[in-house]
Amino acid sequence: MTSENDHCECSVIHEDVILNVKSKFPHDEPIIRVSELFKILGDETRTRIICALGFSEMCVCDIAALLKMTSSAISHQLRILRESQIIKSRRVGKVVYYSLADQHIEKLFNIAFEHVMEEI
Amino acid sequence: MTSENDHCECSVIHEDVILNVKSKFPHDEPIIRVSELFKILGDETRTRIICALGFSEMCVCDIAALLKMTSSAISHQLRILRESQIIKSRRVGKVVYYSLADQHIEKLFNIAFEHVMEEI
DNA sequence: TAAACAATTGAATAAACGCTCAATTGATTC
DNA sequence: GAATCAATTGAGCGTTTATTCAATTGTTTA
Q1: Partner of B53 at 20 to 30 A CA spacing, among A44, B2, B21, B79?
Q2: pLDDT digits over B52-71, tens only?
């Protein structure tokens, strides 16, 4: 029993394929970061927030009114997006304005929208 | 009380901004599909599977051995990816080979990897 | 300095999710 | 046709997570 099938009850069928893919495979860190990025984008409320901020800088109340949700719920999601550096904020008096941190996310969204539009 | 703040305890601060964004905002269906797509990509195991299939067509046992997981766990994830039409399968005897369904997902992944690499 | 209000935070709850385990299906081969 | 093996499936379990609710912070203004 080799280390390859410690966790797999099957006999390895194509060892050459496995070795080939293993030699090209990314390290854990980028894999984990990419899946975490997608996980953060993979929520309806956060998707809507990012969409909205793609059109205009907005404060918490505006987003809450637009999405017909409480500002508490929105604020919780904004924190997650801010900590992932997907959005940034600036405070003017009592009001905090949010906007997209950079263009990468918009590019990602555009391709994702193209993809799902083809299916419709 | 207007329909806009039924669910928001704040008074609307920038009605012009809300109306502007609302006029450009996507319908529910594409939003839901995009967030579902990202949700599916946002899991470490599924990210690894997609990565692997980007390099080579592989059977369930091969993927299980590569990722050091049970073929049951892999099969469950493959079903989710197959139902989302992210991957496709072909059977040869007892063995089922999986591969990426199209290039969209790879493009999405490349941009995502670029994005996370900049942060490192 | 007290009231008002936008925003944030923490705890609690209910729903969603990934893996395990056991059983089953589908296909080959002896 | 019985045994074997890759793959699939369903139930169960523990974990994660999005929202709600109540309390608090930070800033303005009366």
Answers
A1: A44
A2: 999 999 999 999 999 999 99
